[in-house]
């Protein structure tokens, strides 16, 4: 697993574009298995949220060029549903009052050449997390399952 840490107060478009470009290359070749966005406290490095996007690639489509039937409209509906669910997550996720940084973790096949700007990383797990599974969506090539884990020990049960 490779990690790209963005610890600046301002995220540059150039850095973001490079990450996205690498992801698309890995996706097209069927080599990207999971992308994880990890949100951490800037002061302590403690992991506060972990957004896990598991990617299952249809190998027949990638390797043999087999075509799957699914309308673009249906794909867009599924993506819009997960975007609405992500947007509504503010109703249950704890507020992040401190300054935060984030890491992007990429789980790829072992034969991938990792760019020199990426480093090996631990999985940056949360101890005893709260977890919410979000809607899945699939395209003609990829199925994506989404799970958000978050630290929730500050909320007292009354």
From TrEMBL:
PROSITE patterns: HORMA. Keywords: Cell cycle, Cell division, Mitosis, Nucleus. GO terms for biological process: cell division; mitotic spindle assembly checkpoint signaling. The keyword Membrane does not apply. One of its GO terms (cellular component) is kinetochore. Residues 1-148 form the HORMA domain. It comes from the Eukaryota. The keyword Lipid biosynthesis does not apply. It is found in: Nucleus. It holds the Pfam family HORMA. Belongs to the MAD2 family. This is HORMA domain-containing protein.
């Amino acid at each position: 697993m490779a990690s790209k840490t963005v610890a600046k107060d301002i995220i540059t478009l150039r850095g973001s574009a490079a990450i996205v470009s690498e992801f698309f290359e890995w996706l097209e070749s069927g080599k990207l298995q999971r992308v994880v966005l990890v949100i951490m406290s800037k002061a302590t490095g403690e992991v506060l949220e972990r957004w896990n996007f598991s990617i299952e690639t249809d190998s027949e489509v990638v390797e043999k060029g087999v075509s799957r039937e699914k309308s673009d409209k249906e794909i867009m509906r599924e993506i819009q549903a997960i975007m609405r669910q992500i947007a509504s997550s503010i109703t249950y996720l704890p507020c992040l009052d401190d300054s935060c940084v984030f890491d992007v973790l990429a789980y790829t096949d072992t034969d991938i050449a990792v760019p020199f700007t990426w480093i090996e990383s631990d999985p940056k797990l949360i101890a005893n997390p709260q977890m919410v599974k979000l809607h899945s969506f699939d395209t003609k090539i990829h199925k994506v399952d989404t799970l958000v884990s978050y630290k929730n020990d500050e909320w007292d049960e009354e």
